[in-house]
Amino acid sequence: MLRLLCALGLGALLLALSDCRSSQHSLDEKYYLVATNVKLPYWQQVAAGLAKAAAELGVRAEVVGPETYDPKAQHEQFTEALKRKPSGVLVSASDPNLLTADINAAITQGIPVITVDSDAPASKRLTFIGTDNYKAGVTGGQQVAKWLKFRGVVVVYTIPMQNNLYERMHGYSDVFANYPQIKISGVIDTKGDPGIAFDRTMELLDSGTRVDAFVCLVSFACPEVAEVLTRKKVTGKVVVAMDTDDRTLEGIQKGVILATIAQKPFTMAFFGLKVLDDLHHHPPSSLMTNWANDSFSPVPIFVDTGTTLIHRENVERFINERAYATKR
Questions:
Q1: What is the mean pLDDT of residues 25-39?
Q2: Structural domains in the chain?
């Protein structure tokens, strides 16, 4: 009996060692995600998704990127990541025109690149994993139009050069075009700075400028709008946000923010790393192929991770479900 147990124990050990030797992952394998602003809560959700996927795959992965919105600094971070010969790169393009050359350089070197969150559609990236941003804009536009009763003055907070925000703006604009009595009176370039959103909102209220609705295409803007409205004791405004940082959800609970369009940043990074890992270990014959025109492409041109409209009626359920998910 003892011999049998010893034999079984030795067999299990040999099997485990065999599994380690046959594993497709090597010690020098590492992936990078190049973010636009690592300090924002949104990107912390992205980092959580990357870490979860890395743990499941048994690989190393790291989030890099500027601590403020800085496209030039992101370009430099991308360049530095390439020097380390990564197994693959996920990137959210803060400025597609600036990042396209970097992405193409990586592809030329045989390093797979996937865009997440914000695309660089003119680049040679293999696929984009993120939100259908035009559709998100349409969803937000329909809500704003309904709450305005199809007339009113709207101010929009955005970063114009980002491709994802441009598409959201397009969606809103197309909806508002159906209602001639809804006018966009101002488009505020936040430059990635929450302070600009706060200051410009304060200026609008102090000047007596008519604004019936505040639309935020970036995650950090509407919490600042809500803060100003609360301080000024202004009520009755339509405020539609983007994403689900804690201050946005609190604004919905308090009734200052009417709704937010929730993306899935965790999913973007989680799924993105798994696709990158597969491309690294089972590479196509060439990364230079124009996959958009290839009927036998190994990857889709776009993966829509979906959105959810969060409002007063479902915000508590969303918060509870998210808390449960983080414990899994």
A1: 89
A2: 27-131+264-305 (3.40.50.2300), 133-262 (3.40.50.2300)
